[in-house]
Specification:
This protein starts with a strand and ends with a strand. It is 39% helix and 19% strand. With 282 residues, the protein is α/β, with parallel strands linked by helices. Helix 7 crosses helix 8 and helix 10 (203-214) packs antiparallel against helix 11. The structure holds adenosine monophosphate.
Length: 282
């Protein structure tokens, strides 16, 4: 694996690879890598000649400064895992390298209602920051394929909007969520959970599964409320939302919509950590 800290050197190398006709897959991450990230790398390796992974904890997408400060950093282990997974290139830029003119947003991205619902409602500015960094990274790497996890369902929709609006020449591939035994979605933030909290956190998956199992038996409103109560009962301190939405638009579903493709999404706090998860209901 070759490690680049500077975009110019990386771009030179990628230019040469593209000139040789190599297909380039890109997996942007914030590090603290786990098997979920590695599943993105594996799919990229299958579909491309070269996989570029970036590790960059993007300050502009954290609406909560404490969350940014406490974001886990496990660089040595990340490098080891990426090497073992057969990653060709790791891009490890500094904040200065990505934002040479400062981190202030230069342009607002037009994300419409997507920006203000669910994660957007609880994390103001988050998706602007996500678009800002991914737009820059895509400009630098110019991959053929961009690999994203279904775990961050709304993020995928936001980035599809970015790619469409800016007409970026890249195809998005969405990779299913990797889970621990017990169903907890793998996440870098899980590292901050105590053993006890981690055991309780599996309730998030059971709550979503319960929605899927009872979708045709109970009204949407009741399913959402039952799931939120269950999470609180199982040790979650605060539930930001449990929402059943149209899978294609993320607009709220009604009882008349149950035949269509739906997705259940939730965000809730266990201990100091905010976890998100989702499950397709069909
Ligand atoms: P992050 O480092 O959390 O920004 O995540 C980098 C990429 O990995 C994003 O596209 C995430 O959606 C994806 N990802 C994170 N957790 C998982 C998981 N458990 N399964 C699959 N993909 C994931």
């Amino acid at each position: 694996m070759i490690l680049y800290k500077e975009k110019n050197a990386l771009q030179k190398q990628l230019l040469a690879l593209r000139a040789e006709g190599k297909k380039i897959g890109f997996v942007p991450t914030m590090g603290a890598l786990h098997k979920g990230h590695l599943s993105l790398i594996a799919q990229s390796n299958q579909e491309n000649d070269v996989t570029v992974c970036s590790i960059f904890v993007n300050p502009t997408q954290f609406n909560d400064p404490k969350d940014f400060e406490k974001y886990p950093v496990t660089l040595d282990n990340d490098v080891l895992q990426l090497e073992r997974a057969g990653t060709a290139i790791l891009f490890l830029p500094s904040v200065q390298e990505i934002y040479p003119d400062g981190t202030a947003l230069k342009e607002r991205y037009e994300l419409g209602y997507l920006e203000n619902i669910l994660e957007g409602a609880y994390r103001p500015g988050h998706f602007q920051g996500v678009c800002q960094v991914v737009h820059r990274l895509l400009d630098i790497v110019q991959p053929h394929y961009l690999y994203l996890g279904q775990k961050d369902y709304q993020q995928v929709m936001v980035l599809k909007t970015l790619v469409q609006q800016k007409q970026l020449p890249v195809t998005i591939r969405v990779v299913p969520t990797s889970r621990e035994t017990g169903g907890l979605a793998m996440s870098s933030r899980n590292m901050r959970l105590s053993n006890g909290e981690r055991a309780h956190a599996t309730a998030i998956y059971r709550a979503l599964q319960n929605i899927r199992e009872n979708l045709n038996r109970q009204p949407i409103e009741q399913l959402q409320q039952t799931a939120a109560h269950y999470l609180l009962q199982q040790g979650f301190e605060k539930v930001d939302y449990v929402a059943i939405c149209h899978a294609d638009t993320l607009l709220p579903a009604t009882d008349a919509d149950k035949a269509g493709p739906l997705v259940a999404l939730t965000a809730a706090f266990i201990g100091p950590v905010r976890l998100i998860d989702n499950l397709l209901l069909q």
